[in-house]
Design brief:
alpha/beta, Rossmann fold, 5-stranded parallel beta sheet, two-stranded antiparallel sheet, 7 strands, 38% helix, 25% strand, globular
Length: 142
């Protein structure tokens, strides 16, 4: 891993979304300035985030994903919200930029994500490549 590059983590349970992100980064030359990696679960994301070597500068996260809650696997927006809270309440990770990347555009989701500390909320739509490039460039490396 190149430690001079911005580290970008995508958390999304949809394989197509993970592949699309990777392709966008490669096609637009962002891999020259960013180390991009993707995981499919909140548990995997927490492992990456809590490791000082792999801790990202920017996290793009979906909201509605499977996650462990009290020994049961549930699928709900609480998955993404729990990840944002995990990042923003830990002093070691609170500086990570969080961008919600979701199909869900309900105002209550936007408000809760913002209240938990997410800097941006990006609805999955046709402007994804342009939006991703703009967002990545907007965040300076920590």
């Amino acid at each position: 891993m190149d430690y001079t590059k911005k580290k970008i983590l995508l958390v999304d349970d949809n394989e197509f979304t993970r592949l699309m992100f990777s392709d966008i980064f490669w096609l637009h030359g962002l891999d020259d300035e960013c180390s991009f990696f993707a995981v499919k679960s909140v548990a995997e994301a927490m492992g990456v985030i809590d490791n000082p070597i792999t801790c990202p500068d920017v996290v793009f996260t979906g909201l509605v994903m499977p996650f462990e809650n009290g020994g049961k696997t549930e699928t709900s927006a609480e998955a993404g919200f729990s990840l944002i809270e995990h990042i923003k309440t830990n002093p070691k990770t609170a500086g990570i930029h969080v961008v919600v990347f979701s199909n869900f555009n309900e105002e209550e989701y936007r408000e809760k994500a913002s209240a938990l500390g997410a800097e941006m909320y990006l609805k999955k739509d046709d402007n994804i490549p342009a939006d991703l490039i703009r967002i990545v460039h907007s965040f300076d490396k920590r």
